[in-house]
Amino acid sequence: MILVIKMDELKTPALDKMQAIMDESQIIGEFIEWLKESSKYGVVEEVDYIEEVDVSGLCEPPEYEYRKTTEWRPIRKSTEQILAEYFEIDLNAVDVERSELLKLALHKPTK
Q1: Which regions in the chain score pLDDT beneath 70?
Q2: d(CA 22, CA 33)
Q3: Do 46 and 72 meet the contact criterion of CB atoms below 8 Å apart?
Q4: Distance between CA atoms of residues 51 and 107, nearest Å
Q5: Whole-structure pTM over 0.85, yes or no?
Q6: 54 touches 64 (CB < 8 A)
Q7: Residues in contact with 98: Cβ distance below 8 Å, sequence separation at least 6, in sequence order
């Protein structure tokens, strides 16, 4: 039996978006990789957190104050994750769409 599947019936908005921005994201991705590998520069992200500070001095019991602190820390995201965030692409949706395309290519119907 031959299974005929119309590829145009399969909707892949996340993959379509990735395809549309491929040239631009390739250039940006190469730049991000260069920054990560460079010894002069680094890729960092702004991290906010609440810090507990003892403001009591020698008084008992101690008094604490909470202050918002901002630090710059090395980014722990892959280049793909950074690009997906920038271009607003859902990587989970991309994985689902790729799986669906693979199932179609292998002629295995989806449950």
Answers
A1: 1-9, 108-111
A2: 16
A3: yes
A4: 56
A5: no
A6: yes
A7: 15
